[in-house]
Amino acid sequence: MRKIVIAIDGYSSCGKSTTAKAVAAELGYAYIDTGAMYRAVTLYLLERNIAFDDLPRIEQALHDIHIAFKRNRKTGRNELCLDGVIREDEIRQMRISNSVSEVSVIPAVRHTLVRQQQRMGRKRGVVMDGRDIGTTVFPDAEVKVFMTADVVTRAERRQQELAAKDEHVALEDIVENLRKRDHIDSTRAESPLRRAADAVLLDTTHMVIEEQVDFVLERVSASLFSLAALGNDQNGREAVV
Ligand code: DC
């Protein structure tokens, strides 16, 4: 069966990665969490005390850094690997969340990561989640979903995720972090967070994960069906409409 690219963009903590992961598992596709890549660059710069405006050192860092995803055989999860070491837990900490938007506005960072993401998806058969997948990384993605949700609902979900990892953060602090990131992500000059004209909007405020997954899978079926119909038509056979 033909493989496609599924782009899931939207605000932080709307359930993008949980949905994308489940959709990828269902289809046997690769899942790529592009936010994890921006988080990894942030961790790398912080650990080396590289200032976010020190462009020559940032460019050198982008040349040296090695980012990959490794499958954890025990959990089946794809984990972020920075220079050969799994750093999945560290990149999710609040200290990284508080700086990652500043790092992701840097054009050199975006160019490097976008190129790597395009390489990762060149054979298609991927579900990629982020902020600019449907607009910049894969503007030709066959399925594009733009996720949003009420900011307090998003903060509550994030608070639970952090608590599960024993990091206890006040709800107001998370709301503030999300608002700040939303603002920086949507107003930056380089590929800002915005809904692609052909992306379908999904508001997850009152939805559970299963409903979100079903929503995306329905879009995938519709896309595969119309691609097959188009293929039949082009081969001179009867088109299915
Ligand atoms: O999805 P996340 O919250 O882990 O993403 C972390 C940050 O990375 C987010 O605040 C914005 C940035 N990001 C981006 O600019 N472009 C992407 N494709 C993915 C994430």
From TrEMBL:
<dbReference type="Pfam" id="PF02224">
    <property type="entry name" value="Cytidylate_kin"/>
</dbReference>
<comment type="similarity">
    <text>Belongs to the cytidylate kinase family. Type 1 subfamily.</text>
</comment>
<dbReference type="GO" id="GO:0005829">
    <property type="term" value="C:cytosol"/>
</dbReference>
<protein>
    <recommendedName>
        <fullName>Cytidylate kinase</fullName>
        <ecNumber>2.7.4.25</ecNumber>
    </recommendedName>
</protein>
<dbReference type="InterPro" id="IPR027417">
    <property type="entry name" value="P-loop_NTPase"/>
</dbReference>
<keyword id="KW-0067">ATP-binding</keyword>
<dbReference type="GO" id="GO:0036431">
    <property type="term" value="F:dCMP kinase activity"/>
</dbReference>
<dbReference type="GO" id="GO:0005524">
    <property type="term" value="F:ATP binding"/>
</dbReference>
<dbReference type="GO" id="GO:0006220">
    <property type="term" value="P:pyrimidine nucleotide metabolic process"/>
</dbReference>
<keyword id="KW-0963">Cytoplasm</keyword>
<dbReference type="InterPro" id="IPR011994">
    <property type="entry name" value="Cytidylate_kinase_dom"/>
</dbReference>
<feature type="domain" description="Cytidylate kinase">
    <location>
        <begin position="6"/>
        <end position="220"/>
    </location>
</feature>
<keyword id="KW-0808">Transferase</keyword>
<dbReference type="GO" id="GO:0036430">
    <property type="term" value="F:CMP kinase activity"/>
</dbReference>
<keyword id="KW-0418">Kinase</keyword>
<keyword id="KW-0547">Nucleotide-binding</keyword>
<dbReference type="InterPro" id="IPR003136">
    <property type="entry name" value="Cytidylate_kin"/>
</dbReference>
<feature type="binding site">
    <location>
        <begin position="10"/>
        <end position="18"/>
    </location>
    <ligand>
        <name>ATP</name>
    </ligand>
</feature>
<dbReference type="GO" id="GO:0015949">
    <property type="term" value="P:nucleobase-containing small molecule interconversion"/>
</dbReference>
